[in-house]
């Protein structure tokens, strides 16, 4: 019996482990929020001039993957090299601003940098200073963007959080039209709820010279009954339920011979018959202890008429 039990134990352990895994309540550990998407121009200006309604622009795209973005200047597409450099000419079409729009087709995100063509920014000969974007960069504004994007679960509002390193460089900062500068905490952070019905999250930042950068992030919606495994980094077991195992015990025997055998520790079995006083009716009952120690079986043994002992 001991050999049989040793062979069964590993199997039971495996079954318990499988049962615990099946009954465990697992929660997907979706990667939390990214360190932050910097809300600043994703371009670095090179020599740029404006004259006679035409802009000669040059510079570099500073996004992480510049070869995957599309650039347009005042609505006109401009080529970008694999290293992010660009140069070309764009017609202003009578506009008094110079606009650089960078779009990532893979994510649908767009960053638009707008430079007003005022005397504060355009020098002699129509040259735009390379420092025209420095104030926005020094503001060090960030938006904490989830790796899976901005998602409204069950139509609930989307919480947009971020921070500003140097608010003195900014004239305004808004999230979907809500003034974020007025909601800054002492540590420079903010949190603004955006309605779950919004199609995008728009962050607009403007410095004191009127130069602005606006980032637009598409939103998505999800139902409460679904859990997305997109960008999951693992599985966390939040709770485990074990099913109680009932061990079958031997039933106690009221037979005297079985009690004597159990006390002596003998594993051998030998049927025994007991002499008992003959009951009225001429029959004597014989008790036979079973091998398994269960409730003994009682049989009636007929005796010859006139007395005698059981055979």
List the helices and strands and how they pair.
Blueprint: H1 2-23, E1 25-30, E2 37-38, E3 43-45, E4 48-51, E5 54-61, E6 70-73, E7 76-78, E8 85-91, E9 97-104, E10 109-116, E11 127-128, H2 134-139, E12 141-144, E13 150-153, E14 158-164, E15 170-175, E16 178-179, E17 189-194, E18 200-207, E19 212-222, E20 232-239, H3 256-264, E21 283-288, E22 297-302
Parallel strand pairs: 13-19
Antiparallel strand pairs: 1-20, 2-12, 3-5, 4-5, 4-11, 5-8, 6-7, 6-9, 9-10, 10-19, 12-14, 14-17, 15-16, 15-18, 18-19, 21-22
Overview of the molecule:
The strands form 5 sheets. Strands 6, 7, 9, 10, 13, 15, 16, 18 and 19 form a 9-stranded mixed sheet that branches. Strands 3, 4, 5, 8 and 11 form a 5-stranded antiparallel sheet that branches. The protein is built from 3 helices and 22 strands. With 311 residues, it is mainly β. The protein has helices at 2-23, 134-139, 256-264; strands at residues 25-30, 37-38, 43-45, 48-51, 54-61, 70-73, 76-78, 85-91, 97-104, 109-116, 127-128, 141-144, 150-153, 158-164, 170-175, 178-179, 189-194, 200-207, 212-222, 232-239, 283-288, 297-302. The protein starts with a helix and ends in a 9-residue tail after the last strand. 20% of the residues are buried. It has 3 domains: 1-30 and 235-247, no CATH class; 32-230, no CATH class; 256-302, no CATH class.
Major β-sheet, in short?
9 strands, mixed
Rg over CA atoms: 42 Å
Q: Work out the count of structural domains.
A: 3
What amount of the residues lies in strands?
Answer: 35-45%
Unreliable sequence segments: 1-33, 285-293
According to DSSP, the number of beta strands is: 22
Distance between the termini: 35 Å
Give me the oligomer status. single chain
Give the SSE string: HEEEEEEEEEEEHEEEEEEEEEHEE
Average per-residue pLDDT, rounded, comes to 77
């Amino acid at each position: 019996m001991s050999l049989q039990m040793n062979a069964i134990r590993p199997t039971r352990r495996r079954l318990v482990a499988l049962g615990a895994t099946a009954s465990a309540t697992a929660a997907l550990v979706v990667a939390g929020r990214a360190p932050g998407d910097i809300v600043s121009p994703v371009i670095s200006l090179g020599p740029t001039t404006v004259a006679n309604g035409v802009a000669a622009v040059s510079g570099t795209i500073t996004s992480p993957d510049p070869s995957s973005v599309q650039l347009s200047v005042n609505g006109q597409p401009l080529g970008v090299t694999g290293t992010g450099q660009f140069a070309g000419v764009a017609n202003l079409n009578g506009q008094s601003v110079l606009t650089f729009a960078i779009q990532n087709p893979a994510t649908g995100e767009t960053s638009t940098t707008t430079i007003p063509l005022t005397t504060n920014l355009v020098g002699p000969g129509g040259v735009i200073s390379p420092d025209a974007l420095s104030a926005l960069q020094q503001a060090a504004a960030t938006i904490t963007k989830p790796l899976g994007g901005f998602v409204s679960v069950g139509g609930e509002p989307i919480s947009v959080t971020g921070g500003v390193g140097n608010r003195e460089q900014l004239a305004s900062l808004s999230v979907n039209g809500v003034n974020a500068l007025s909601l800054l905490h002492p540590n420079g952070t903010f949190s603004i709820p955006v309605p779950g019905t919004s199609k995008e999250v728009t962050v607009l930042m403007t410095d004191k010279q009127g130069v602005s950068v606006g980032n637009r992030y598409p939103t998505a919606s999800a139902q409460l009954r679904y859990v997305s495994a997109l960008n999951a980094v693992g599985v966390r077991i939040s709770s485990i339920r074990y099913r109680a195992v009932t061990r079958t015990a031997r039933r106690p025997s009221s037979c005297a011979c079985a009690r004597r055998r159990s006390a002596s520790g003998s594993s051998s079995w030998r049927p025994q018959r007991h002499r008992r006083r003959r009951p009225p009716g001429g029959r004597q009952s014989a008790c036979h202890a079973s091998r398994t120690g269960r409730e003994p079986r009682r049989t009636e043994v007929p005796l010859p008429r006139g007395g005698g002992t059981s055979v």
